[in-house]
Design brief:
The protein is of the alpha/beta class. It is 36% helix and 18% strand. Strands 3-2-1-4-5 form a five-stranded parallel sheet. Strands 10-9-11-8-12 form a five-stranded parallel sheet, sandwiched between helices. The protein has 17 helices and 19 strands. It folds into four domains: 100 residues, Rossmann fold (3-Layer(aba) Sandwich), CATH 3.40.50; 57 residues, no CATH class; 114 residues, Tetrapyrrole methylase, N-terminal domain (Cobalt-precorrin-4 Transmethylase, domain 1); 129 residues, Methyltransferase, Cobalt-precorrin-4 Transmethylase, Domain 2. Bound molecules: S-adenosyl-L-homocysteine. S-adenosyl-L-homocysteine binds next to helix 13 and strand 19.
């Protein structure tokens, strides 16, 4: 699942203090719009020959100004937003056109196509506002979500936000670094059982923040987390990885790390690409090590994001060595390795009770070229292995295994882009492996699962689309 790839409507919270909003219409459609609008600090101007009792009540309380007449073009002067909310669709569409011609944003009641903006369902705990939009596809779904959130978010939430706001300056002067400060606040509400945490009183929260500030040590030294990004599908990211990404100042990432995963980083973070293209340009490992050390010494919270699991064919030790020599604190967050993702996609266990007790993780390439392995041992043990970086070496692997007595009918499954967009599964045999890799145009990233056949491609493909 790639989030938000196709967002037609941009959700933004616009400052409406003292802005003029024109509402044309005085009955139920206008009243419905006004119910939200009167909560803002905008100057509301209602133009209509007649208005409902409720609107009249709002007028008498000074919440809006009523012009008792039909609208004319002069009403559009100096206006920021227009609501065409008469009970007449044709009239509304006409006003929408007139407004749009003047560059104004307009909402025409119950006519999505005539609207520049639509209003979301709101859960109002001012200043905390949760707005729920479905781009007009399903108002009933939006309402159901709203009802659920209404019941769950405590009414004191707005007050809590105000208390936090009043404490921010104090925390900022004590902890100047943005990333450390984010961590500080993240630990105040750590997301575990959030709803009960939100039920604390303002006083309790204030003393919790003070206690935590007293315990806070100034930490000018940065740190590095080696984080597994998984096989590419953001759904397969661990919570720890998401949290690390969220608090990183600098994100150093590889070629196979997907955009959907990078999106969990903050926009203000610095993103450094250090990809190694197979057979193409690459960032030397020593340079990557140097970047990590330098950024951490500058005081940054660094995330070194590696595809899959950082400890499997990830050259993590070289980076960890460099960090240790420089005396930089580091941590490792494991990720789902691509062999595990590939096995899941074909619905087959990597180990099966009573059948195979071991599985090898092999690389097709090493520093010298095609990697040599204990081919005889592998062939004798039924050649159960997941081969990383094996696409280019597939002919070599096939030849070596056959030469050492492996069964030419041994099942082999190639999974390209496991778990991510463009996934291809090719079920073949050892004897046809390299031929089929070429025939299917497999370029990688791919895992070769030697000794494994898909349980059922149809079934697993179905599962994928259901999960997305
Ligand atoms: N640390 C990574 C492996 C890095 S080596 C891990 O644990 O998965 C790079 C190799 O990983 C690629 O050549 C390919 O064999 C494999 N790989 C990475 N992402 C993959 C994916 N989504 N599908 C299949 N193979 C993948």
């Amino acid at each position: 699942m790639l989030l938000g790839l196709n967002m037609r409507y941009l959700p933004i919270h616009v400052d409406m203090k003292d802005a003029k909003i024109l509402i044309v219409g005085g009955s139920s459609a206008a009243e419905a719009k006004l119910r939200t609008l009167i909560k803002t600090d905008a100057n509301l101007c209602v133009v209509a020959p007649e208005i409902s009792d409720e609107i009249a009540r709002w007028e008498s309380k000074g919440k809006l100004v009523w012009k008792k007449r039909e609208y004319d073009l002069s009403d559009l002067e100096g206006v920021r937003l227009v609501y065409a909310a008469t009970e007449d669709d044709i009239e509304n569409a006409k006003l929408a056109d007139l407004s749009r011609a003047r560059g104004l944003l307009v909402n025409a009641a119950d006519q999505k196509d005539a609207c520049d903006f639509i209003t979301p369902a709101l859960v109002d705990r001012s200043p905390v506002i949760v707005s729920i939009g479905t781009e007009g596809t399903s108002p009933s779904l939006a309402r159901a979500i709203k009802t659920d959130l209404e019941a769950r978010l405590p009414s004191s939430l707005g007050n809590l936000a105000n208390v936090i706001n009043s404490l921010r300056a104090k925390v900022k002067s004590k902890i100047p670094s943005l990333s450390e400060r984010q961590l500080f606040w993240a630990e105040i509400f750590d997301g575990k059982d959030l709803l009960s945490q939100l039920r604390v009183s303002g006083n309790e929260l204030t003393s919790r923040v003070s206690r935590k500030m007293e315990g806070h040590k100034d930490n000018k030294m940065g740190s590095v987390s080696l984080v597994g990004a998984g096989p590419g599908n953001p759904d397969l990211l661990t919570l720890a990885a998401r949290q690390k990404l969220h608090s990183a100042d600098v994100i150093v990432y590889d070629r196979l790390v997907s955009k959907g995963v990078l999106d969990f980083g903050r926009r203000e973070a610095e993103y450094i690409y250090v990809g190694k293209e197979p057979g193409g340009a690459s960032t030397p490992q020593t340079e990557i090590n140097a970047i990590l050390v330098e950024k951490a010494l500058e005081g940054s919270t660094v995330v070194r994001l590696k595809s899959g699991d950082p400890l499997i064919f990830g050259r993590a030790d070289e980076e960890v060595d460099a960090l240790e020599i420089a005396g930089i604190s580091y941590g490792i967050v494991p990720g789902i390795t691509s062999a595990a993702a590939a096995a899941a996609e074909i619905g087959t266990s990597l180990t099966t009770r009573g059948h195979n007790k071991a599985v090898s993780f092999l690389t097709g390439h090493d520093a010298k070229g095609f990697a040599e392995h204990d081919w005889a041992g592998l062939a004798a043990g039924g050649a159960r292995a997941a081969v990383y970086m094996g696409v280019g070496a597939s002919g070599f692997i096939q030849g070596r295994l056959l030469m050492h007595g492996a069964d030419k009918h041994l099942a082999v499954t190639v999974v390209e882009n496991a778990s991510r967009e463009g996934q291809i599964i090719v079920a073949t045999t050892l004897e046809r492996l390299s031929e089929d890799i070429i025939a299917h145009g497999i370029k990688g990233p791919a895992i070769l699962l030697l000794g494994y056949a898909p349980r059922s491609i149809a079934e697993t493909s179905f599962k994928r689309s259901a999960a997305q």
